[in-house]
Amino acid sequence: MKHLVIFGAPGSGKGTQSKKLEEKYGIRVVSTGDLLRAEVAAGSEIGKTCADIIAQGKFPDNAIIFKLIELFLDKNSDAKGILYDGFPRTVEQAEYLLTLLTQRREMIQTVINIGVDEDVLIKRISGRFACAECGEIYNKYFKTPSTEGVCDVCGAENFKVRSDDNEETVKTRMMMYEEATAPVLDFFRDRDLNIILVDGMQPVDVVFHQIENIL
Ligand code: ADP
Ligand code: AMP
């Protein structure tokens, strides 16, 4: 089984590119952010514990994240490839993932690192919304549905905005990224993993072609 990591700051386009990779190549995406939001929406114990933490842009305990990852891997043991989105987010999480994969005699083949300038990240996050039915990601500045108010993918007419996509929380999320998440790249480098830098400032399809060319 292949294991790929899609890496980058909040708003760099990880979710957008992951969905395209999933559709075209049939690899399965595990987005810890999506899993946590699903728990919150379902009102589960995990969701209740995490809702405020996520809304503030902070990180829930690793025990919760690791449980979600292990459940996902157990359910998807038949997958030909897994793409990790939003995980690992700390060096501790990266150590955990490498240990878990080593135990399973597997490894990370590629880390796709999407680079985007900070001022663009803020605009992308503040403009983000998604289809409430299928989760397709849109942006009021960069990618609106072709018919206003109607999802291009499933035709639904209701959309949602993430609880953490507001100005105050974005500052915390950027700080968490710089302090806790960016060091994961050095950790991967020290372990000689294959890290590929992609220019995430380009339009969605151009970014996708860059990724396809390296996979
Ligand atoms: P992440 O998962 O890294 O937080 P998303 O994939 O949700 O990022 O993208 C953040 C926002 O930026 C979304 O509103 C999305 O539509 C938009 N976006 C993603 N990639 C691009 C791009 N290459 N150019 C312009 N806007 C983009
Ligand atoms: P994302 O969808 O990746 O932008 O994640 C949204 C929020 O979910 C983050 O700001 C965190 O609060 C939480 N989250 C997602 N993935 C993780 C993770 N691997 N570790 C800790 N918190 C996470």
TrEMBL record:
Binding residue positions for Zn(2+): 131, 134, 151, 154
Positions contributing to AMP binding: 32, 37, 86-89, 93, 162, 173
Mitochondrion in keyword set: no
MF annotations from Gene Ontology: AMP kinase activity; ATP binding; zinc ion binding
Region named NMP: 31-60
A Gene Ontology BP annotation from the UniProt entry: AMP salvage
Highest taxon above the source species: Bacteria
A GO CC term assigned to this protein in UniProt: cytoplasm
Catalytic activity: AMP + ATP = 2 ADP
Domain Adenylate kinase active site lid residues, every copy: 128-164
Keywords assigned: ATP-binding, Cytoplasm, Kinase, Metal-binding, Nucleotide biosynthesis, Nucleotide-binding, Transferase, Zinc
SUPFAM superfamilies, alphabetized: Microbial and mitochondrial ADK, insert 'zinc finger' domain (SSF57774), P-loop containing nucleoside triphosphate hydrolases (SSF52540)
Subcellular locations according to the entry: Cytoplasm
HAMAP family linked to this entry: Adenylate_kinase_Adk
Family per similarity comment: Belongs to the adenylate kinase family.
Assembly behavior: Monomer.
PANTHER family: NUCLEOTIDE KINASE
Function noted in UniProt: Catalyzes the reversible transfer of the terminal phosphate group between ATP and AMP. Plays an important role in cellular energy homeostasis and in adenine nucleotide metabolism.
Record's protein name: Adenylate kinase
